[in-house]
Amino acid sequence: MRKIAALSLMLGLAACQSGTDAAPADAAASKDPSVAAPAAPAATAEAQKAIAERAFVALRKLDPGFERLGFEHLVGDLDRDGQDDVVVLFGQGTPDATMAASKKLMVLMNRGNDFQALPQADMPEFCPELDKISSGRLYLRAIDICSAARPKTTDYYVYAWNGKTVLEAEHQSRQQRVVAELAELGRALRMRDKNLVLGRMNFPLEAIGLPIYETALEKAAAAAGGKIDRALAEKHYTDLFPDSRADTYAETIEQALGQSFASEPDGTLVASRSQQRGKSEETYSISIQPDPDADREEGNDELIDAQVSVIAAVAEEVEVSDGEGGKSVERQEGAESLILHLIDGRLRLAAFNVAG
Fold first, then answer.
1. d(C-alpha 145, C-alpha 127), whole Å
2. H/E/C letters for each residue in 240-272?
3. Which residue, among 129, 149, 150, has the nearest Cα to 141 in the 3D structure?
4. H runs (alpha helix) in the chain
5. pLDDT score for 41
6. How far, CA to CA in Å, does 337 sit from each of 4, 140, 188?
7. How confident is the model over 305-356, as pLDDT tens digits?
8. What pLDDT score was predicted for residue 15?
9. Taking the model in full, what pTM does it have?
10. Which residues contact 110 (CB under 8 A, 6 or more apart)?
């Protein structure tokens, strides 16, 4: 780890909450079947709407009340036969219920003149949420509480056509998703891939509190009213992430991910590694806090499935004057850190504070 320049901890957190990714290849349709997927071209959206309506007609024969407690759906070609299929997720409850207590997933395969529902035995046993259909694969998320208004994702699944039905092809736990996302971010920081790194931030950024003191970016942001847009961040990327800082973050991720995670009493998962370098003790750590309270703050509409802290800390025994002409040994500490949020399956840079 490159030695942290100064050993005093500064808590200037940058409000850099996550941005959004591009829409998937096969658009997720609205809960209201009359509303077309906005990302699709008009003709495609109209065609998908018509396919969905035909599937709903077939589904009403199997489950006449599927719309009563709310539903959502995806349209896309699952078996690669050139015809879009429809996946419907709808609420279930007692006859007098006004809110769904559970959810049911049905996959309706397009057979030209009609739709064929796949066996329920092949459907997931967990409570799912729809993600997308992309490249013939169905992406689902497992949620913690089926009836919750704001459920949290616990697992990520991919289902694929096997010639007869769709079955689970891939699975990642929340921890596995975080680890994979961190590894990708670490590589991007190491390789100076600014497009990927900046893609994890939400623009415009507030310049106040960012570690850009006495840089060209600080001056440019001041001239722009204290805001940093994507173009400005790209132009002055090395002011946000100078090589030493990027390498410290990357090395911390690499070193900590090489260790096993241990569970703390509150459920937080921690992996860390310490090493002695001369008079300094360096510690690299990653902590994963499932279901943090950060998303319950007023004005935060995004669900945070995990909060991740990446911390590079250094402690050093330093000789200092005792004020009486002598010397004493003082332990000085400092750190550099990243705070990230897992939102919709992607890690987003929420804040970073830097010593120095």
1. 8
2. HCCHHHHHHHHHHHHHHHCCCCEECCCCCEEEE
3. 129
4. 42-62, 174-190, 194-198, 216-223, 230-235, 237-240, 243-257
5. 46
6. 11, 32, 17
7. 999 999 999 988 777 777 777 777 677 778 899 999 999 999 999 888 744 4
8. 39
9. 0.81
10. 51, 55, 81, 83, 84, 85, 86
- Contact indicator for 208, 222 with CB cutoff of 8 Å: no
8 Å CB contact between 206 and 227: yes
String of b and e for 53-91 (b: at least 16 CB within 10 Å)?
ebbbebbeeeeeebbbbebbbbbbbbbeeeebbbbbbbb
* Cβ–Cβ under 8 Å, residues 261 and 175: yes
Q: Are 75 and 59 in contact (CB under 8 A)?
A: no
CA distance 114 to 69: 25
Q: pLDDT tens-digit profile of 276-295?
A: 888 888 999 999 999 887 77
Phi, psi of 54 (to 5 degrees): -65, -40
Task: Give the model's pLDDT for residue 268.
Answer: 96
Task: Characterise 288 by phi-psi region: left (phi > 0), alpha (psi -120 to 50), beta (else).
Answer: beta
Tell me the residue type at 189: L
Query: Is residue 302 scored above 90 in pLDDT?
Result: no
CA distance 252 to 274: 11
Amino acid letter, residue 20: T
**Angle (nearest 5°) at CA 340 between 336 and 343:** 175
